[in-house]
Amino acid sequence: MNDHFQAPEGNFRGHDQQSVWNQQHDPELTEVGPGTPCGEYLRRFWLPVAMTDQVGDLPYRIRILGEDLVLFREKKEGKLGLTHLHCCHRNMSLEFGIIEEGGIRCSYHGWKYGLDGTVLETPCEPPASQVKKKACLGAYPVIEYKGLAFAYMGPADERPPFPVMDTFDDDGDELVPYLIKSPCNWLQVMENAWDPFHVVYLHTKAARVQFHEAFAHMPMIEFHDCQTGDFYTNVRRDGDYIWVRVHDHMLPSFTQNGGHFPIPDQSRYFGRGGLTRWITPIDDTNTMVIAWRHFRDPSFNDDPRGMTNRDEVGFGKTDFYGQGPDRPYEMRQRDPGDYDAWVSQGPINVHARENLSFTDRGVAKARRMVRNAIRALQKGERPAQATDNFKGGVIPTYAGDTVLKIPMQEGRDDGALQKEVSFKVAEILKSGDHLQGKERRAFIENALKEYEAGWA
After folding, report:
1. Which of the residues 1, 91, 185, 273 has the least number of beta carbons within 10 Å of its own beta carbon?
2. Rg of the chain over CA atoms, in angstroms?
3. Other C-beta atoms within 10 Å of 134: how many?
4. Is the pTM of this model over 0.70?
5. What is 177-225 written as a DSSP string?
C-alpha cells in the first residue's frame, strides 16, 4: 500500500458525461411487445420459440415477444399447440390446463380449446348457451422441425411460407438444437453476429486464444447482397493461404456462422458452417438464442482438433466458449465471452452513449436495415421474406469456410489481393443459386478449385 499522498493527474470528465448517461434507449428498435413497431415487424416471421424436448406431458409456459403463452402437445396426433396463457373464460392460467386429444382444457370450468383457439366445449354452460360461438382463445400456428418449435405470431392472412434453408438437411450433417437465455434486449445479441472485428480481441487477444490463433489477424470485411438478404466475407491471410469465412444474415434475426474449429492449413472448398441460429425476444429485456449446432461426418474435416462435444449442446448450454452464464463470475471477468459482451451492455443498450467507428459498420448496417424494414411495415409494405425468390424450393445459403492456397504475389499489395479474392469467392458462391443439394456443392467446389489453380 502506498502511504504517500499523490494527487491524480489527467483530464477527468466523468461529471461532463452526465448528460450522455441520461439518454434513453431507442424504442423503435428495441421494444417488442404487441402493437410496438418492432414487435409488429418481428411477428411477420417464423421464429423458433422452444426446443421440443422441453414439451412433456404437461403444458409448458413460455413468454415470447412480451406475450405470456402456453405450449403443449395434444394427445391424439401429438401436434403442438401454442395459445395465450389465460383461459378466455375467467383467465385461469392454462399452465394448469388438462391436455387432451385435439386440444387443451381449462381445469377451472372445463372449457376446451382446439389448437387454433376455437372453443370446442363449455361443459358448465347450459345446452342453449351460445358463448362458445362468440369467444375464442388467442392461438398461433406452430411447426415442429428437427427439435425446434417455430411459431408465427403475426396476422393470419399474412402468414409467409416456412423457410427451409439448404443447411437444414445436408447429407452427413446432424443438427443438434440448443437454447440459451440472456437477460438483455434482443438487438444487442443479434448485432454481435454483424461485428466480425470483435473476434480479433474478445476471442483471441483479450485473454487467450479461444478458437484459433489465426483470428488474431485483422480481417478484411466485405458485405455482399444476395437474394435472401446479406452475407459478409471475412478474409485473413495465414501463410500461403487466404482464408475466407462467410456468415449469412437474414432479417430479422437469422444468422449462420462459419465453422467453429477449422484450421486454415490446407485448401478447403465451400466448407459449411458450424452454427445456424435465431435470436428470439422474450420481452424487451430478455432474449433467447435458439440454434442448431452442426455435427458432420468426420470426412468433412470440420473439427481436426477434436474440440466439438455433442453432449454439451442442449438447454442452457453449447459446446463453444462464452455463450452463457455457466461460469463463475471471476472466470468471466478474467476470460469474458460473447454472453458477457452483450449482457454487460445493460438490459437495453443506449445507442446515444456509443461512439461507433469504422469497424462498427456491420452493426450500423444491421440497425439501419431493421429500422428501414420496421418503417416500411408501418407504411403498409409487406416485409421481405427469404422465401420470396425461392417459392416452394430450398433456399441457398453461403455460410462456411473456404481456404485457398494463394501465396503473396511479389510486387502486389496483399490487402488488394485479399479483397479481390473475397469478391471472387462471393461471386462463385452466388453463381450456384440455381442449383440445389449435391449438384450445387459440386458446382461451387469445382469453380473454387479452378480459381485457385489459376494462382499456382
Report:
1. 1
2. 25
3. 8
4. yes
5. EEEEEESS-HHHHHGGGG-TTHHHIIIIISSS-SS-GGGGSPPEEEEEE
What is the C-alpha to C-alpha distance for residues 225 and 228, in angstroms, rounded to an integer?
A: 8
Q: Which of 164, 160, 233 is nearest to 396 (CA)?
A: 164
Nearest to 279 by CA among 25, 28, 29: 29
**Which residues, in sequence order, are CB contacts of 256 under 8 Å at separation 6+?**
165, 167, 247, 248, 273, 275, 276, 277, 397, 399
Query: Nearest to residue 214, comparing CAs of 195, 237, 198?
Result: 237
Tens digit of pLDDT at every position of the chain (456 positions): 566 777 788 887 777 777 777 788 999 999 999 999 999 999 999 999 999 999 999 999 999 999 999 999 999 999 999 999 999 999 999 999 999 999 999 999 999 999 999 999 999 888 888 898 899 999 999 999 999 999 999 999 999 999 999 999 988 899 999 999 999 999 999 999 998 887 776 776 666 666 666 666 778 889 998 888 889 999 989 899 999 999 999 999 999 998 877 888 899 999 998 999 999 999 999 999 999 999 987 766 677 777 788 999 999 999 888 889 989 999 998 888 889 999 999 999 999 998 899 989 999 999 999 999 999 999 999 999 999 988 778 999 999 999 999 999 998 999 999 999 999 999 999 999 999 999 999 999 999 999 999 998
At which residue does the C-alpha cell 409448458 appear? 60
Contact present, 147 and 293 (Cβ < 8 Å): no
Distances (CA, A) of 357 to 128, 188, 322, 354, 397: 69, 17, 25, 9, 29
| Dist CA 48 CA 373 (whole Å) | 20
Grouping H, G, I as helix, E, B as strand and the rest as coil, residue 286 is strand
Check: CB of residue 89 under 8 Å from CB of residue 129: no
Torsion sign over Cα 24, 28, 32, 37? positive
